[in-house]
Amino acid sequence: MTTYTFFNHAGGVGKTSATRDFGYELASRGHQVLLVDFDPQGNLTSFLGAD
Ligand SMILES: Nc1ncnc2c1ncn2[C@@H]1O[C@H](COP(=O)(O)OP(=O)(O)OP(=O)(O)O)[C@@H](O)[C@H]1O
Ligand SMILES: [Mg+2]
């Protein structure tokens, strides 16, 4: 198992989008992917269509 973290102090620079797209690309290549959304904004969750 490998854990990847996308981190930057700056807001709105694409951390969540990069996480979503990286996860999608790994999954589309047959890897098992778990995306974990610790951000109270919940953007990753809503980007993926969940409440
Ligand atoms: N590669 C890109 N090219 C153009 N726009 C992008 C790109 N990546 C993200 N964006 C846009 O930039 C905005 C901010 O992206 P995102 O929410 O991923 O940033 P963030 O760093 O997670 O923000 P926050 O600090 O609020 O969590 C969004 O409107 C997103 O669609
Ligand atoms: Mg974000």
From TrEMBL:
Pfam families: AAA_31
Alphabetized InterPro entries for the sequence: AAA_dom, DNA_Partitioning_ATPase, P-loop_NTPase
Transmembrane segments: none
Gene3D superfamilies hit by this protein: P-loop containing nucleotide triphosphate hydrolases
AAA domain residues: 3-50
Protein name, as recorded: Cellulose biosynthesis protein BcsQ
Organism: Deinococcus soli
